[in-house]
Design goal:
CATH superfamily of the largest domain: Isopropylmalate Dehydrogenase
Order of helices and strands: EHEHHEHHHEEHHHEHEHEHEEHHH
Number of strands: 10
Distance between the termini: 18 Å
Shape: globular
Number of domains: 3
Structural class: alpha/beta
Strand content: 15-25%
Helix content: 40-55%
Length: 382
C-alpha cells in the first residue's frame, strides 16, 4: 500500500458534514489503487478562529504548504463576517486562507469540469431539447493568479505612498465607504500567460477538444495583450482548434450549451463568474468540483465551488456530491485512476437511479440527507 498525505481543511458551516462524506468515499476508492490517504487535520476558517484566535493558524498554513496537497472544504460564515470580520477585516477567512494558499503554492490552473447529458437533463434548468444528444463536455480552466484578485497586493509596493493615495489604490480590507475614489490594480505577465496557455493547449490536445479563449479584448488592454499572447502560443499547437469569445457573449452561450463544448480558458474574474453559471446549468453549485494545480511542481488544492451553505449547518441536508467529485480529482492527480473513475461512475449511477439531496430534488421525490447520499455513493464503489 502506498501512503499519501493530504492536508484536510474541513471548513465552516455545512462543509464539515460534506467533507466527512467525501473523505470516507475517497478513502475507500483509493484502496482500489493500493493507496492509503492520511488526512492531516488542518484547521482554517471561523471554526479555527474560535479555537486558536486566527482563521489561518500558522501551523495550518505550514501543513498546507509542506504537504502540497490540500483538500479544502470551504471557509466563511456571514454572521461571523459581519461581527468579528468587520472589527478585524484581516481575519476574513477566504482572503487569509484560500488566496495565500493559491499564491504560495503557485496554483496557476484551476480546472472546473462540467458534463451535461440528456440522461440527467432533469438536473438542469435548461429545456432538454437544448442539450445535444451526445451531451456536452465543458472544462473551464481558470487563470487563478494575477488579474485583479492579486494586482493591488502584488504591485502597490512599486508605487510611492503619494501616488497610491492620489490614485485611490486600496485593498478590500482598507475600504471604509467614505472614499471619493477607489482603484484596484489588475495585471498579466507574459511569461505567466504563456505557461498557462501551454498547459491549456496540452490539456485540450489530450482531450481532443476545441480550446475557447475568453477575454474582453474589445475594451481592456490586459485582455488585448492576453489575446495576442494566445495567438503566439497557438502556433505551437497547430492540431488544436481555437476560437475566441468575449466574456459577455460567452455568458449568453451558457444557455446554448452545445456552443461552448470544449476547454474554456478564462481569466481569474471571468473564470470565477462563468464557471459558477455553468455549474447551475448542470445541476447547481452543490455539484461543482475543481482542482487548482501548479504546472511546474504538481502541488495542488482540491475544492468544491459550493461554498459552506451556513444555513444548512448541523442539519445533515447539504449536497456532498461536489466534494466527492472533487475527491475523484484528487485521486486522479496522485495517479489513483481506478479510484477516481470508480467515484465518477458511482456518482453517475446514484443520480441515474434518482438519489437526490434537497437542492437537486424533483417535487414529491424522496430527499436524501447528506450522509445518505454519501452512503449511496459509497455502496457503488467497486
Amino acid at each position: 500500500m502506498k501512503k499519501v498525505n493530504v492536508a484536510l481543511v474541513t471548513g465552516d458551516g455545512s462543509a464539515p458534514e460534506m467533507m466527512r462524506e467525501a473523505t470516507r468515499v475517497v478513502s475507500l476508492a483509493a484502496k482500489l489503487d493500493d493507496v492509503v490517504i492520511d488526512w492531516l487535520d488542518t484547521p482554517m476558517g471561523w471554526n479555527a478562529y474560535k479555537k486558536f484566535g486566527d482563521t489561518t493558524p500558522a501551523s495550518s498554513m505550514d501543513t498546507a504548504l509542506k504537504t502540497g496537497r490540500v483538500f479544502f472544504g470551504g471557509v466563511g460564515d456571514p454572521e461571523m463576517d459581519k461581527t468579528i470580520g468587520k472589527e478585524h477585516p484581516e481575519m476574513m477567512p477566504e482572503a487569509r486562507a484560500l488566496l495565500p494558499i493559491r499564491k504560495n503554492l503557485g496554483l496557476l490552473l484551476n480546472f472546473r469540469p462540467m458534463r451535461l447529458t440528456r440522461e440527467l437533463a432533469h438536473l438542469s434548468p435548461l429545456r432538454p431539447e437544448l442539450i445535444p444528444a451526445e451531451g456536452v463536455e465543458m472544462v473551464f480552466i481558470r487563470f487563478l493568479l494575477e488579474d485583479s484578485y492579486f494586482g493591488t497586493k502584488d504591485l502597490r509596493a512599486h508605487l510611492d505612498s503619494y501616488n497610491a493615495r492620489v490614485l485611490g489604490i486600496k485593498l478590500k480590507s482598507e475600504v471604509d465607504g467614505n472614499e471619493h475614489l477607489v482603484t484596484e490594480l489588475a495585471y498579466y505577465r507574459g511569461d505567466t500567460i504563456r505557461k498557462y496557455f501551454r498547459a491549456a493547449f496540452q490539456y485540450a490536445q489530450s482531450k481532443k477538444l476545441l480550446l475557447i479563449s475568453v477575454d474582453k479584448a474589445n475594451v481592456m488592454a490586459r485582455y488585448a495583450y492576453w489575446r495576442k499572447v494566445v495567438g503566439q502560443v497557438a502556433k505551437e499547437f497547430p492540431d488544436v482548434p481555437i476560437s475566441y469569445q468575449l466574456a459577455d457573449s460567452a455568458c449568453a452561450l451558457l444557455f446554448r450549451p452545445g456552443s461552448l463544448r470544449g476547454v474554456i480558458a478564462c481569466g481569474n474574474e471571468h473564470g470565477d463568474i462563468l464557471s459558477d453559471g455553468a455549474a447551475e446549468m448542470v445541476g447547481g453549485m452543490g455539484m461543482m468540483h475543481s482542482s487548482s494545480i501548479n504546472p511546474d511542481t504538481g502541488q495542488a488544492l482540491f475544492e468544491s465551488g459550493a461554498g459552506t451553505a451556513p444555513t444548512l449547518a448541523g442539519q445533515n441536508m447539504a449536497n456532498p456530491l461536489g466534494r466527492i467529485l472533487t475527491g475523484a480529482m484528487l485521486l486522479r492527480h496522485i495517479g489513483a485512476e481506478r479510484g477516481a473513475a470508480a467515484i465518477e461512475t458511482a456518482v453517475h449511477e446514484v443520480l441515474r437511479k434518482g438519489c437526490r439531496t434537497a437542492d437537486i430534488a424533483e417535487a414529491n421525490k424522496h430527499i436524501f440527507s447528506c450522509s445518505e447520499m454519501g452512503t449511496a455513493v459509497l455502496n457503488h464503489i467497486s
